[in-house]
Amino acid sequence: MSQYSAITGWGMYVPEKVMTNADMERIVETSDEWITSRTGIKQRHVAAPNETASTLSIAAARQALERAGIEGKDLGLIIVATVSADYPFPSTANLVQHALGAQCGAFDMQAACSGFLYSLSIAHQFIANGSVKHALVIGVEVLSRVVDYTDRATCVLFGDGAGAVVLSASDQPGGLLGFTIGSDGARPDLLWIPTGGSAEPATEQTIRDRRNFVQMQGSEVFKFATRVMGTAMEEALANAGMTADDMDLFIPHQANLRIIEAASKRLNLPSEKVFVNIQDYGNTSAAAIPIALCEAIDQGRVYPGAHLGMVAFGAGLTWAAAVVQWTAPIATQENSYKAAKAGVKTGTHAEQEKVQV
Ligand SMILES: CC(C)(COP(=O)(O)OP(=O)(O)OC[C@H]1O[C@@H](n2cnc3c(N)ncnc32)[C@H](O)[C@@H]1OP(=O)(O)O)[C@@H](O)C(=O)NCCC(=O)NCCS
């Protein structure tokens, strides 16, 4: 009685406030030219003082529930992937569960930028073994609270946002077809927040040394990322009995355009099969892939039957990849959203015809 697990709802929320590269130039010694050429980023969204990981999550989740046609009380599981939770404890997932009126288990999952795909693979287990019918999986970050705005090597990279999906049990073949998760904890210091945990509790000195903010050895992370993105994606594809050629759309973690290009090259993918929105959001860590998925759907690049490849890497170091065959009938579910965003194409005619086949 093993079940397929299909994405039946999706939603995203980004804070209204935008910080452009010109704004960054006013804060640290940098330039639009440097940021654009080294990363592809043009702007990032930044949370308002009253916004937190849970408020962003709830906004994205409400959209996802509406699209799935279910309510909070229908959920059997909530997982929130984040490194910028409201509190060390309780979990952000607890707050989301209460706000949505859900009556189910809820927990946070920490695998940094790989967290959303880790969480998707966990939710899939609950659905495949028949114990949960609908799971809510959220990737959310308010990195603006943990980024050091005196460190130009990191502060230009990150942004805030949330993305959510509802994963539902289905008899229809498709949904999550394969995945992989990985970890190499040999060098936690390559990307970390050193202070604030049990290893180094916050003291006046550690805070003076700004060790309560993100620290990164960028070029080491870059080398790791270019290596792991392709191999992780290939592993997940192999687990699904597929190769890179079978992918209709590649939705990689949005950390650096050069890393995305290197991974796409390794997978031999033409640019039209690669989704990129890093220019608008920067690196939103666990939120990057679900936000990218929502925008890909919005732009008509996802359609029933399409095989989506998603891959992420992050602090840990961690990596994860997943292959999803899209099954939700976008054309009908998107109607209300389309109306709200008049003029946005949500599916080419050819794609709609492909659906009929
Ligand atoms: C961070 C990153 C963009 C830096 O690009 P890079 O080409 O590796 O640049 P380097 O770190 O070698 O720095 C080159 C120079 O630019 C400078 N620099 C760093 N940030 C800068 C900025 N915002 N503006 C201008 N100059 C900057 C450095 O100080 C260095 O100067 P120096 O040569 O005088 O010492 C790149 O390493 C990267 O993207 N790494 C992966 C990061 C990542 O993905 N993290 C998230 C993981 S989920």
Give an account of the 3D structure.
The protein has a five-stranded mixed sheet with strand order 1-7-6-4-5, with helices on both faces. Helix 3 crosses helix 4 (92-100) and helix 8 packs parallel to helix 9. It has helices spanning 21-25, 32-39, 53-68, 92-100, 115-128, 152-155, 204-208, 218-239, 257-266, 278-281, 288-298, 330-333, 335-340, 349-356, and strands spanning 4-13, 18-20, 43-45, 77-81, 105-109, 134-142, 160-170, 175-183, 191-192, 215-216, 249-252, 307-314, 318-325. By secondary structure, it is α/β, with parallel strands linked by helices. 35% of the residues lie in helices and 22% in strands. It has two domains: 4-173, Peroxisomal Thiolase, Chain A, domain 1, CATH 3.40.47; 177-277 and 302-332, Peroxisomal Thiolase, Chain A, domain 1. It is built from 14 helices and 13 strands. The chain is globular and about 55 Å long. The chain binds coenzyme A (COA). Coenzyme A (COA) binds at residues 30, 34-35, 38-39, 113, 152-153, 156, 191, 216, 218-219, 221-222, 225, 255-256, 283, 313-314.
- Overall body shape: globular
CATH topology of the largest domain: Peroxisomal Thiolase, Chain A, domain 1
End-to-end gap:
28 Å
How do the SSEs run, as a string of H and E?
A: EEHHEHEHEHEHEEEHEHEHHHEEHHH
The overall pLDDT average reads: 92
Number of helices: 14
| CATH second-level architecture of the largest domain | 3-Layer(aba) Sandwich
List cofactors, ions and other ligands.
coenzyme A
Determine the strand fraction and express it as a percent band: 15-25%
- Strand order, biggest sheet? 1-7-6-4-5
Unreliable spans? 335-357
Number of structurally distinct domains: 2
Output the CATH class name of the largest domain.
Alpha Beta
Number of strands: 13
Class of secondary structure makeup: alpha/beta
Q: How many whole angstroms does the radius of gyration measure?
A: 19 Å
The major β-sheet equals: 5 strands, mixed
Which range best describes the helical content: under 10%, 10-25%, 25-40%, 40-55%, 55-70% or over 70%?
A: 25-40%
CATH superfamily of the largest domain: Thiolase/Chalcone synthase
